[in-house]
Amino acid sequence: MQALLPLEAPRLLLRHAHDSDLAPFAALNAEREAAAFAQPARPPLAHTLPGSRDARRMAGKGGNHTMKIAAISDIHGNLGALDAVLADIARRGVDVIVNLGDIVSGHLQPRATAARLMALDLPTIRGNHERQLLGDPARMGVSDAYARAQLLPQQLAWIDGLPASLCLRQDVLLVHGTPTSDLVYFLDSVTPQGSRAATPDEVATRAGDAEAALILCGHTHMPRSMPLPDGRLIVNPGSVGLQAYDDDHGYPHVMENGTPHARYAIAAQGADGAWTAQFYAVDYDWEQAARLALANGRPDWVTPLRTGRVGAA
Predict the structure, then answer these.
(1) CA proximity to 13, closest of 221, 224, 266, 281
(2) Angle between helix 19-34 and 110-120 (nearest 10)
(3) Chain-centre distance for alpha carbon 265
(4) Residue-by-residue DSSP string for 235-282
(5) Which of 57, 119, 132, 284 could be joined to 84 by an S-S link, Cβ 3.0–4.6 Å?
(6) Could you give the CA distance from residue 186 to residue 132 in angstroms, rounded to a whole number?
């Protein structure tokens, strides 16, 4: 029997988003938050930003070109973190950016975040929060209810049209939780003792018979990857917008990254066809995000945004 491979520890690179990197995006924040969203002009750099429609037409061309996919997930309306991540990605020469869901729910900037992403036209799937905010208002959580109240009709229609999963290529699958659920954790497990990294057997069971060499997932906010014995690689890029939370799904547990940096990952395919993943943590103005959450009625988000922990640091 082939030995099972251990969970691969993320190789985390810290990056600082300089003002010059964010210049094309920063002016959009206040403008889109204050103004009604009609038919927004494509923002600066969208014609060359990987993942935009024109960039996707060019992706994969060039003979022995190595495929590089930037994966973002769990933005939760944190536009400042999103802009910092996009600026960092723009320097790295990726072919496409994909969005793995949980996009707007939260007491930050849901309308401006939706406007930003709709204009970029990235390959995007919905997460459990997109499904929930389109559901019964009587059963809606406070994060979803806040976003639902802020979003405009065309933004809700965009969310309603997002698929639950997407085959980016024949060998690349995008899911939010697992291939069969947007609520089940893929690379983490919850027990009565709390959350922990999933075992290889647990991950293989959740992957099932999904026929993809690379499976990109989100939902847990924890940057992790695991190579399976059959050659498949499962990658969770972590969260762009919220680095800690508590939950009682399954059993009460907390998920904490320990720092407030915005997370994303790049998956790269070598000439031999094998995929690898690199993880990034990006500096942004999390203090501003924390103040915005507090002003919008979510004091429980302040510490997670400032520290990457649920409780006091």
Answers:
(1) 281
(2) 120
(3) 9
(4) EE---SS-SEEEE-SSS-EEEE-SS--EEEEEEEE-TTS-EEEEEEEE
(5) 284
(6) 20
Tell me the β-bridge partners of 234: 215, 226
Instruction: Point out which residues pair with 279 in neighbouring strands.
Output: 12, 265
| Token pair for 163 | 């698929």
| Angstrom distance (rounded) from CA 229 to CA 241 | 32
Handedness of CA 206, 210, 212, 213 (dihedral sign): positive
Rounded to two decimals, what is the model's pTM?
A: 0.82
- What backbone torsions phi and psi does residue 13 show, to the nearest 5 degrees? -110, 125
3-state secondary structure of 176: coil
Q: Which two tokens stand for residue 24?
A: 């094309």
The Cα 216–Cα 222 span in angstroms is 13
User: Is 188 strand, coil or helix?
Assistant: strand
Q: Are the C-beta atoms of residues 218 and 184 closer than 8 Å to each other?
A: no
pLDDT tens-digit profile, the chain (313 residues):
333 333 344 445 655 444 344 443 333 333 433 333 333 333 333 323 555 444 443 344 333 347 999 999 999 999 999 999 999 999 999 999 999 999 999 999 999 999 999 999 999 999 999 999 999 988 999 999 999 999 999 999 999 999 999 999 989 999 999 999 999 999 999 999 999 999 999 999 999 999 999 999 999 999 999 999 999 999 999 999 999 999 988 899 999 999 999 999 999 999 999 999 999 999 999 999 999 999 999 999 999 999 999 975 4
SS3 assignment, position 14: strand
Measure the CA–CA gap between 195 and 99, rounded to whole angstroms: 25
Residue where the block lists tokens 């904490």 = 256
What single-letter DSSP state applies at residue 199? Answer: P
Cβ-contact 14, 61 below 8 angstroms: no
Q: In sequence order, what E strands does the chain have? A: 12-16, 68-72, 96-99, 166-169, 172-174, 188-191, 194-197, 214-216, 224-227, 233-236, 244-247, 253-256, 262-269, 275-283
Q: How far apart are CA 33 and CA 99, in angstroms?
A: 21
d(CA 252, CA 275): 34
